[in-house]
Amino acid sequence: MRTSLALLALVAPAAALAQTPGAVQLVSSIKVEHVRKGPDGKPQRVVEEAKKVVPGDGLIFSFAYRNAGAKPATGFVITDPLPANVAFAGGETPGALYSVDRGKSWGPLASLRVPTANGGSRAATSADVNGIRWAFPAIPPGGSGQVSFRGLVK
What we know:
Number of helices: 1
Largest sheet: 5 strands, antiparallel
Number of strands: 11
Oligomer: single chain
Order of helices and strands: HEEEEEEEEEEE
Low-confidence stretches: 1-20
Distance between the termini: 16 Å
Strand content: over 45%
Mean pLDDT: 85
Structural class: mainly beta
């Protein structure tokens, strides 16, 4: 029961937080990565729909977009705040901007800082990320693409 509730908390933010000017369609999905024994008995990585998750599971958050309109779509932004029970797994996320302050500011991870207990600050790391955003200046008519990032269930 507890994992089912956690999964609902994972799905809602990903699906709801895109600004969709014009006729841009957005489809989001969350997949879970498991390691299972393959037919030969060796470990095999399996990616499947996230129906049940447990701490330690790897997640793949994906967003597919398509401009179904007759004009270019400008100012399209996908914003996904990470749920409290998901950690950003790091890695390359092309074109992404990150937040470490719940969406107050955005930038490349290397440019972000987080406050320290002594009143100073330190460079942000992937463990500090609590939001991810992609901004598209223009998507031509019929233009489409997909962005994704990896998370880890806490």
